[in-house]
Write a structure and sequence with these properties.
Order of helices and strands: EHEEHEEEEEHH
Strand order of the largest sheet: 2-3-1-6
Structural class: alpha+beta
Number of strands: 8
Radius of gyration: 39 Å
Helix content: 40-55%
Number of helices: 4
Strand content: 15-25%
CATH superfamily of the largest domain: RRM (RNA recognition motif) domain
Mean pLDDT: 81
Shape: rod-shaped
Largest sheet: 4 strands, antiparallel
CATH architecture of the largest domain: 2-Layer Sandwich
Low-confidence stretches: none
Distance between the termini: 74 Å
């Protein structure tokens, strides 16, 4: 991912069902002053989704907490602690970005026009290739017809065949 990480917000994964925001806060407060703790809820069950976010006031505190708590055990479950990525909203050039969906409307229209132009050019090129192939086939067919006529002329008239061969040798 090309998104910058938030150095004072930690992702905490592998949370047991019993862990709530108060318990998560208590587990991480020894490392420094905490600004915010969130455990996103599953809409269907209204329980957290086995992960949460802890935001420290100081980056150094977040780094210390990550170093000490990654791989630690809480309520019988091993925690995964990493720096969190910023919240994202749908939209932008890559499908998800920290900008509204309409922010890249101009570039979308530009890409659409470029794609249409490319398709038009490809269609013209295909038509030109088909026309060239048709002309080539007609030319080959005409040459074959000419060879057949020459062959039939020489078979019918041996004197004409000898004259034609003599002319070819002299030139």
């Amino acid at each position: 991912m090309n998104q910058p990480v938030q150095k004072n917000t930690l992702y905490v994964g592998g949370l047991a069902e019993e862990v709530d925001e108060k318990i998560l806060h208590a587990a991480f407060v020894p490392f420094g002053e905490i600004k915010d703790v969130k455990t996103p809820l599953d809409q269907a069950t209204q329980k957290h989704r086995s992960f949460g976010f802890v935001t420290f006031l100081e980056r150094e505190d977040a780094a210390a907490a990550m170093d000490n708590m990654d791989g630690a055990e809480l309520f019988g479950r091993v925690l995964t602690v990493n720096y969190a990525f910023p919240e994202r909203i749908k939209g932008g050039e890559q499908g998800w970005a920290a900008q509204p969906i309409w922010a890249d409307a101009d570039t979308w229209f530009e890409r659409q026009q470029q794609e249409e132009e490319m398709q038009r050019l490809q269609a013209e090129q295909r038509a030109a290739m088909q026309a060239a192939e048709k002309l080539h086939r007609e030319k080959l067919a005409a040459e074959k017809e000419g060879e057949k006529e020459e062959d039939t002329d020489t078979k019918a008239d041996p004197m004409a065949a000898a004259e034609a061969q003599a002319l070819k040798q002299s030139s």
